[in-house]
Amino acid sequence: MTYQDHIATTRQLIQGKNGAWDGIDAESVARMRLQNRFQTGLDIARYTAAIMRRDMAAYDADPANYTQSLGCWHGFIGQQKMIAIKKHFGSTERKYLYLSGWMIAALRSEFGPLPDQSMHEKTSVPALIEELYTFLRQADARELGMLFREIDAARAAGNQIEEQRLLHAVENYQTHVVPIIADIDAGFGNAEATYLLARKMIEAGACALQIENQVSDEKQCGHQDGKVTVPHEDFLAKVRACRYAFLELGVEDGIIVTRTDSLGAGLTKQIAISHTPGDLGDQYNAFLDCEEITPENGVSGDVIINRDGKLMRPKRLPSNLYQFRPGTGEDRCVLDCITSLQHGADLLWIETEKPHIEQIAGMVDRIRAVVPNAKLVYNNSPSFNWTLNFRQQVFDAWAAEGRDLSAYDRARLMSVDYDGTDLADEADERIRTFQADSAKRAGIFHHLITLPTYHTAALSTDNLAKEYFGEAGMLGYVKGVQRQEIRQGIACVKHQNMSGSDIGDDHKEYFAGEAALKAGGAHNTMNQFAA
């Protein structure tokens, strides 16, 4: 309903109560309804799933329509990100949030900081989704509340043109609520555990779940060693569990992102079940590193598979894990991706060891030969040394062209000594255009940075601590923080307003009229920031 429709229907409702509700103002109710547009997390999940589906179709039509997100570890961080996006770009279109399991483990676990190994409480994942959307909904309430106050001021001044402009802004208001791609790790257990957690995440508002093909109890960060994958059928059971959760809750267009860690995973815990030659289990086992077994070299406890009529012994490590043949990572990634898309996945995630467009594109080309509209979510990871990687890529490209590289030492290209050189400038330009270039060439629909706000929080706190506890003293805060907030128009410089004080004052006035004791009077120090 429109703003005026809400007012009219509420007024009719009040009038039907024979005077008992005459203390309720219909327009105030309409305002509160618009400030609380989403009643449940499922409302959010359905709304944001539709956004992602439209964005995926737009990308299929033109890869310039790629999407982006930043990982956020607290509701306030996500809120400030979306407020900043609206301020700088005027729209939240194609801008999402990413919920990182790494950051939950490191920052939100009751155990304290943990490595990214699925040791944190699984309940902390839906809790953070709910927290993020609580803060985004509060951003809506705050911004709409300011518009409502401006409407009242325009009416008081008799400025009907300004009032109509503001009413139009209310009717066409764009919410801060955007899709969250949420990390469910490897499912935190078996398929039933995956389903139970997926359901809680969707109920909290998640429209997109990202699940990886590692063993749950051996899960590692995608950019660390020791990763262990599972056979496809085990993984697909968890993919189906996520889909069942979406369908049970009525989010029929929910998105499943399947992540393969096979590029950097050389181990498996299980040998896949195979019923016929060439089936999925047989294809998985074909990558195992095996040696032919004979009566002479067989030992107690050997596990034996039949490969092309020969009895083969997969190489088993002291950890009781089996290893894959070296150099098979890309082939396993391609098989993982095709298999996932053929069994219900919507988007792919290939965890790579470096941000190299042609490496990614080489795999995507093979995937698209089977599934033409395959699309990736890609981790623009802080685990990559972007400066060194791209300077070395430029160095290698120039070497292939036969250019003179005598002024550069490939191993030292991270050095500040090379800043401002032609090679460094070209590398920076490649970094700048990486997302657009890889969206076009390598099928990347969504670019995210998993841990950016973890690093920005550390960097800004380091800078403040150095100044405030040093000779700058209070000037370290005023010059480096507050003055910049004021001059750059950062919303939370008025931190009382940001925390909901003005919303509370509005409600007090709705509830108690002239008797309301409000905080936002003449003596509120936030008035110092009015200019």
Provide a brief overview of the structure.
The chain is an alpha/beta fold and 531 residues long.
Structure report:
37% of the residues are buried. This protein is α/β, with parallel strands linked by helices and 531 residues long. Helix 2 (26-35) packs antiparallel against helix 6 (124-156) and helix 16 (452-468) packs across helix 17. It is built from 19 helices and 14 strands. The strands form 3 sheets. An 8-stranded parallel sheet has the order 12-6-4-3-2-1-14-13. It has a 3-stranded mixed sheet with strand order 5-7-11, with no helix packed on it. The chain has a 3-stranded antiparallel sheet with strand order 8-10-9, with no helix packed on it. Strand 1, helix 4 and strand 2 form a beta-alpha-beta unit. It catalyses: D-threo-isocitrate = glyoxylate + succinate. Pfam families: ICL. This is Isocitrate lyase. InterPro entries: ICL/PEPM (IPR039556), Isocitrate_lyase (IPR006254), Pyrv/PenolPyrv_kinase-like_dom (IPR015813), Pyrv_kinase-like_dom_sf (IPR040442).
